[in-house]
């Protein structure tokens, strides 16, 4: 059970990278089938992109975040760290997003589009009467739980691979995440219109 809760302590970077790449391939396949896209480090969107574009988006967001974490780890850690450990742990940390994509039938992209249009056509006085669907509530609850899972695993994977702990390490992680969110958001947006 411990290996499921904290795989980064028990498995090498090569193992987490192999499993993580399988997770990411599954994410691309499901996103392609359900009409979803990848934006930024943690965002999902709606769109009809080719498999190649989706793969490019996912690889961009993973490699940007992993690269920033590796650079920060190399700069601040006294230990010798390896890119395969950082990248592998970050790839495996994407497992919650695979679970979220598998949950997409609960709140499919068509329903999201419909709810967004309904909200856009609602004035402020009528907004208080907008009642979100049960599907939206359930999906959002699942998404929040999975978001916590992702950040817990992503942080743990970075902390173990870089052998960093404490407030400075948390600050590094947060800084890398924020920068990666901006860079990956820009990159995934550019990839949505430029490949395949």
The total strand number stands at 2
| Strand proportion | under 5%
Q: What's the helix count?
A: 10
Q: What is the arithmetic mean of pLDDT?
A: 87
Portion in helices: over 70%
Q: Determine the structural class based on helices, strands and strand pairing.
A: mainly alpha
What's the structural domain tally? 1
Question: Strands across the major sheet, in which order?
Answer: 1-2
Radius of gyration: 18 Å
Name the overall outline. elongated
Structural summary, described in words:
- With 196 residues, the chain is mostly helical.
- 74% of the residues lie in helices and 4% in strands.
- It has helices at residues 2-5, 7-10, 13-34, 51-76, 83-92, 95-102, 109-120, 124-127, 134-162, 166-192, and strands at residues 36-39, 43-46.
- The protein has a two-stranded antiparallel ribbon with strand order 1-2.
- Strand 1 and strand 2 form a beta hairpin.
- The model has no long low-confidence stretch (mean pLDDT 87).
Short description:
The chain is mostly helical. The protein is 74% helix and 4% strand.
Q: What labels would you give this structure?
A:
2 strands; mainly alpha; single chain; two-stranded antiparallel sheet; 196 residues
């Amino acid at each position: 059970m411990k290996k499921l809760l904290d795989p980064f302590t028990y498995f090498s970077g090569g193992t987490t990278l192999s499993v993580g790449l399988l997770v990411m391939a599954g994410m691309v396949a499901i996103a392609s089938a359900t009409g979803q896209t990848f934006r930024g480090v943690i965002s999902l969107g709606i769109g009809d992109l080719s498999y190649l574009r989706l793969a490019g988006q996912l690889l961009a967001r993973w490699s940007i975040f992993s690269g920033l974490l590796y650079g920060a780890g190399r700069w601040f850690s006294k230990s010798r760290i390896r890119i395969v450990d950082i990248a592998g742990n970050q790839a495996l940390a994407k497992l919650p997003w695979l679970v979220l994509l598998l949950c997409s039938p609960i709140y499919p992209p068509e329903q999201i589009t419909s709810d967004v249009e309904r909200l856009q056509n609602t004035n402020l006085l009528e907004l208080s009467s907008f009642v979100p669907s049960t599907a939206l509530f359930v999906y959002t609850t699942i998404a929040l739980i999975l978001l916590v899972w992702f950040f817990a695993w992503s942080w743990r994977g970075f902390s173990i691979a870089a052998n960093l702990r404490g407030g400075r390490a948390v600050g590094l992680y947060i800084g890398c995440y924020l920068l990666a969110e901006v860079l990956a958001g820009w990159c995934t947006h550019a990839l949505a219109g430029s490949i395949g």
